[in-house]
Each structure stands twice: as C-alpha cells, then as structure tokens.
Amino acid sequence: MNSTLTHTDGMAFDVAIGEHSFTIDAKPEHGGHGTGPNPKALLLASLGGCSAMDIVSILDKMRQPYTKLVVSVDAEITTPDHPKVFDDFTVHVEVEGEVVPKKLWKAVALSRDRYCGVAEMLRAHAPVTFKVVLNGEEVPEP
User: What is the pTM of this model?
Assistant: First the structure.
C-alpha cells in the first residue's frame, strides 16, 4: 500500500492512493483554505470505514436484513500541548432493520476484536469503544 502527497498551495496537498485521489488541507485558522479534510479527520474516517466494512460483510454473511447502517466516530483532542492527540475514540454503529440484536453485537465485536486493523492500531494508543443503536434504541453489549 502506498500514499503519495504532492503540495499544491498553502497547507493543501493532492493525495494519490492507487487509482484514487483527493485533497487534504488545513482550516484557514491553521494556514489552509479548508479545501479538504485534515489528516486527523481522515484518521477518524479510516476507523469508521474499517469498522463499517467489517460489520456490513459480517451481517450479510449472517443474513441479517438491515435497511440502514451508519457508522460515525467521535474523538476529542484533550492534550493541551503538541503533539495534539486523541485520548479516546467512540465508534457509533446505527442500524435499522430486522436485525437480531445479539447478532448485530457479534458483528460489531468481531470487527472490534478481530478484523479491524485500524481499531487495533489505534487501541495501542487510546481506548476505542463501540456503541450500538438498533432501530433508534441503544443496545447494550450482551
């Protein structure tokens, strides 16, 4: 796997990953123009994407009929000094459909504990917790 970043202007870079490309940038107050996400935001998207792809794959294999699946990731930078880092991550998994709650949590737990390499790498630095909502109601882990 390879990623190449080419400076374009200010704090903006064109990013090439395989056949894909996009721009990253800083907010104006940090010298950028806000023309793309910043690297820390991409880190959150990577964690969410890794988890979401695992969960979808596992639910499909379990034949669990979901109609909506949304994963969001929250993290706070609470370190006052540089380098400013995230102290914890919370992955929110929201699902709608006729999914058995225990099977949903099994899919989430398999992603969290076995398959998602991004979660595993981040967990070496800070806690990564998961919250699950099924059809509008939070479901505790069994």
Answer: 0.93
Residues 6+ apart with CB under 8 A from 109: 141
Whether residues 21 and 44 fall in one domain: no
Residues 7 and 64 in one domain: no
Q: Looking at the structure, do residues 24 and 62 belong to the same domain, yes or no?
A: no
Could you read off the pLDDT tens digit of each residue along the chain, which spans 142 residues?
A: 999 999 999 999 999 999 999 999 999 999 999 999 999 999 999 999 999 999 999 999 999 999 999 999 999 988 788 899 999 999 999 999 999 999 999 999 999 999 999 999 999 999 999 999 999 999 999 9
